[in-house]
Specification:
Distance between the termini: 192 Å
Largest sheet: 7 strands, mixed
Oligomer: single chain
Radius of gyration: 44 Å
Length: 901
């Protein structure tokens, strides 16, 4: 290669080397820039890091400061314990409680080692147990404890909470113990409980004080109703008893509310008859709606068990409260009680009770306040309606207490529906509520002027498996009846007589059944009677030809015990007289005393079969009296049945008295049902005389020679219990009563504001006419009453004049017949009168109630001069009040020389 070529090659190589150097230079510059950038960022990050570290340290210092302040100024005690139960830290309040100024004195010391110098041993043991439990179970544990730190006699109440402190692996590394001072809260709680006890005590005392006069009012009215009063007096006394019962219901509501709020309401769990419960509830509400143009319907599933286990008393109260509420706010239309049952868990049934009505309804904005205490809604519209506003509040709380529910739906102005669902236990081998034997052969025809009633009866018949037809037209009814396809005919009072006549004339095997309202029981002569509202149980009883009582009467005495001896102890004389009168039908020998010391003396010297002992008496009360009786060594006094009488109706009282030696418990005012149950339970069976059966009773016959057009004397005598004397007395009272009421009816001018009073008068005349057997007069009065309920002025005017004329003639005929009867029954023999007075005196000394009643009945037929008649009336009055000693004194002073006509 030549030299120029070498030079060019060298230049080329140099250029390539230069380019390579430039490339490397540029690469180095880039790397330098990158390194420089990294260095710059590193310096910046260092500054940021230093700043962040500074901020973190400042925040940590701040947190430590606040944490220190928290521990210093916390009103609660805070302690940190490590896994070895050694002190790690605590709040200053704990140090102050111990009287320690420096935490260093207890740091790292064991929990027990520190506490044993400042707290009693039982407290240490409990705290240690809670602490170990929290760490072992890795969960929060708490306890309430009164602690006396430093044992200086100044304890405080604490809520102590122990929380385990777990690491990331959920391993306990210690615990936080938090003492929250609840001394003030506990004091407030104690004060509230004391106030609640004071309220309960006040309620118990005030109800006791109110129940004492209520016992006299209700008891005396009950005794008066047993007498043969004229219709007006009977109505007055019934109103007194009803008002007393309403007041007692209010007292019970207040008492129940107090018990519910204090948590002392006792829910029982006992066997009961559901049909009996239904009957009681329906009888009460039936009378509430009787005066209104309201149809009361009952639709009860016949498949519900006849016997269940639960709280019968409060279930009845729930149903009664809701039905009473419906009756208050429903002025026309209907009220319906529907009951069904749904199978629930185990042997339980969910009892579903639905009360619906066509009343005034509830406004939407009032729904939230519906169940408040003492709340009255829509007060301007309902200002004339009585009530405390407690019924619904108590009902809801009772439902909740019985593990049930209460719901309500309503359309304002159209009505409401209340639905209760409460679980009840079904008894083993219990039957269905109502079953019809051979339902196929008991086809029934229904005719009722009230479509709602007719539809309800037909629905119930079909639910019982009975084929049923219905028609509202009497002509169609009698045409269908004549076909002979029906075993039963259910009709209202307007058709019963003609139905019975048609059945007899056609020779049908149909049984006529009267669907009766109150006061219409005696209109049916041959067939069955069902008091409306008809439901599954009475309908099934009629179809099964079972003998049932259609009258809603009080329970009757089932036996007499003239050889039995009972002591009644009460410091209030009225209460003694009430109890003596209520027990009189048993014919027992009754002794009365008003204090514990006298009771002890009598019991020790007389072989009593039973003692009724008042709880609260001045001096020696019932508890002390019983204790003294049981302390005697005589064996009979150890087992003598003693029943506590008390106006205290708080929950648990029965258990209280049983625990204190009483054999049973009876609250005042005394209910006849419960009193009869007590007598049946405690009067020895060997001293009872069972009553004569109905089959053995003599047939009541009409009085020979006593005949009045329009008067069925035989039916009237039956209505008065078979006593001809009482029937004559009732006729006299009827005449007096009609005189006063006719004046009111004739004064009716046709104004709408007069209709309520007119309706009440016709209702009273209807009931009174039925009682004496004046059935046509009763029918006419019923027609006028219905017209009054409808506000039908034209119908009232059309029937009033005819009714007044017929009633006037009836009264004139009755008075004439009474004069003839009195003339023929005169007893002229003075010796006979004296012998009867002597017999009456002996009967009173023996307290032989049967003989006393018999003699008074016989002697009331005597016609005496006015002074002697007045004396005889006074004797009868004293006997009614059980003032036997005073009556005997009047007999002893009888003026023998006076002539007897």
């Amino acid at each position: 290669m030549s030299e120029p070529e070498n030079l060019e090659e060298n230049v080329r190589l140099l250029e390539e080397a230069n380019k390579q150097l430039q490339r490397e230079y540029r690469s180095l510059n880039r790397k330098y820039a990158a390194v420089q950038s990294i260095l710059d960022r590193s310096r910046l990050h260092g500054k940021v890091r230093d700043k962040l570290l500074s901020q973190i340290m400042a925040e940590k210092s701040k947190q430590e400061k606040f944490f220190s302040l928290l521990l210093q100024h916390s009103q609660n005690i805070i302690i940190f314990i490590d896994q070895n139960l050694r002190f790690v830290y605590c709040s200053d309040r704990f140090l102050n409680h111990l009287g320690i100024s420096n935490f260093g004195m207890i740091v790292d010391r064991e929990f027990v080692d520190v506490f044993q110098h400042y707290v009693d041993q039982p407290t240490i043991e409990e705290l240690l147990c809670v602490l170990q439990l929290a760490i072992a179970n890795k969960r929060v544990e708490s306890v309430n404890r009164k602690i006396d730190f430093c044992m200086n006699g100044n304890p405080s109440h604490y809520r102590i909470q122990v929380s385990p402190m777990l690491n990331a692996e959920q391993v306990p590394e210690g615990a936080l113990i938090f003492f929250h001072d609840i001394t003030d809260l506990q004091l407030a709680k104690n004060q509230a409980e004391e106030a609640n006890r004071a309220k309960s005590t006040f309620v118990a005392r005030i109800t006791h004080e109110i129940r004492t006069p209520m016992n006299a009012i209700i008891g005396m009215s009950e005794l008066a109703l047993r007498e043969n009063l004229d219709p007006t007096a009977m109505e007055y006394v019934q109103n007194i008893r009803a008002a007393g019962s309403n007041l007692l219901s209010i007292i019970n509501d207040v008492l129940d509310l107090s018990q519910i709020e204090s948590g002392t309401l006792h829910i029982s769990n006992a066997d009961y008859s559901f049909s009996s419960l239904l009957n009681n509830v329906i009888n009460i509400i039936r009378m509430r709606v009787f005066e209104k143009p309201v149809v009361f319907l009952v639709d009860v599933s016949p498949d519900i068990p006849s016997h269940m286990r639960g709280d019968e008393l409060h279930l009845r109260q729930i149903m009664s409260n809701l039905l009473s509420n419906a009756a208050k706010y429903t002025h026309e239309g209907f009220i319906q009680l529907a009951v069904t049952g749904e199978p629930a868990e185990g042997r339980s049934i969910l009892l579903r009770i639905e009360i619906s009505d066509s009343g005034i309804g509830i406004r939407k904005n009032d729904m939230d306040n519906l169940f408040g205490n003492f709340v009255r809604l829509d007060t301007e519209r309902n200002k004339g309606i009585e009530g405390t506003g407690l019924g619904l509040a108590i009902t809801r709380k009772l439902c909740l207490t019985m593990n049930g529910t209460l719901t309500v739906s309503s359309v304002y102005g159209k009505g409401s529906v209340f639905t209760v669902a409460i679980p009840q236990t079904v008894l083993d081998n219990t039957e269905k509520l109502a079953v019809v034997r051979d339902p196929v052969g008991k086809r029934t025809l229904v005719c009722d002027r009230r479509p709602l009633y007719a539809d309800s009866v037909v629905k119930t018949l079909k639910s019982l498996g009975v084929q049923a037809d219905s028609t509202p037209c009497p002509a169609a009814f009698f045409k269908m009846l004549a076909g002979g396809e029906y075993r039963f005919a259910f009709v209202d009072s307007s058709l019963i007589r003609e139905t019975e006549t048609r059945i007899g004339s056609l020779g049908l095997e149909t049984t006529a059944v009267l669907l009766a309202d109150a006061g219409e029981l005696s209109l049916s002569r041959y067939g069955g009677v069902i008091m409306m509202p008809a439901y599954a149980v009475p309908i099934a009883n009629i179809l099964n030809f079972e003998k049932i009582s259609v009258r809603a009467r009080e329970p009757v005495v089932r036996f007499r015990a003239p050889e039995a001896r009972v002591l009644i102890v009460d410091d209030i004389m009225t209460n003694l007289k009430v109890m003596e009168g209520l027990l009189a039908p048993y014919g027992m020998r009754l002794d009365l005393c008003d204090n514990g010391n006298d009771a002890i003396a009598r019991i020790c010297s007389n072989p009593y079969d039973l003692v009724l002992l008042d709880h609260m008496m001045p001096g020696m009360d019932g508890m002390e009296t019983l204790k003294a009786i049981r302390a005697f060594p005589e064996p009979r006094l150890k087992t003598l049945p003693v029943i506590a009488l008390t106006a205290n109706a708080l929950a648990g009282m029965r258990e209280f008295f049983l625990e204190n030696g009483f054999d049973d418990y009876l609250s005042k005012p005394v209910e006849i049902i419960k009193l009869n149950q007590m007598m049946n339970k405690w009067i020895p069976s060997g001293k009872r005389i069972e009553p004569v059966s109905e089959e053995q009773m003599p047939v009541v016959s009409a009085m020979p020679g006593f005949a009045v057009a329009g008067l069925d004397a035989q039916a009237g005598i039956a209505e008065t219990g078979g006593s001809k004397k009482r029937y004559l007395d009732l006729l006299r009272a009827y005449c007096r009563d009609v005189d006063g009421r006719l004046d009111v009816l004739r004064a009716f001018s046709g104004q709408m504001e007069e209709v309520p009073a007119f309706t009440m008068q016709t209702h009273a005349l209807k009931s009174a006419s039925i009682s004496i057997g004046a059935k046509e007069a009763a029918r006419l009065a019923a027609c006028l009453e219905e017209a009054g309920k409808r506000g039908d002025i034209a119908a009232i005017r059309e029937g009033l004049e005819h009714f007044c004329a017929d009633l006037t003639l009836l009264v004139e005929n009755i008075r004439a017949a009474l004069c003839d009867a009195s003339a023929s029954s005169a007893e002229p023999a003075t010796a006979f009168v004296q012998s009867m007075l002597a017999e009456l005196r002996t009967a009173m000394e023996r307290r032989d109630i049967d003989a006393i009643d018999r003699l008074i009945d016989s002697m009331s037929g005597l016609i005496l001069e006015k002074p002697l008649q007045e004396r005889m009336a006074k004797i009868s009055e004293l006997i009614l009040l059980s003032e036997f000693e005073k009556a005997i004194k009047l007999i002893d002073e009888w003026p023998i020389a006076q002539p007897i006509l």
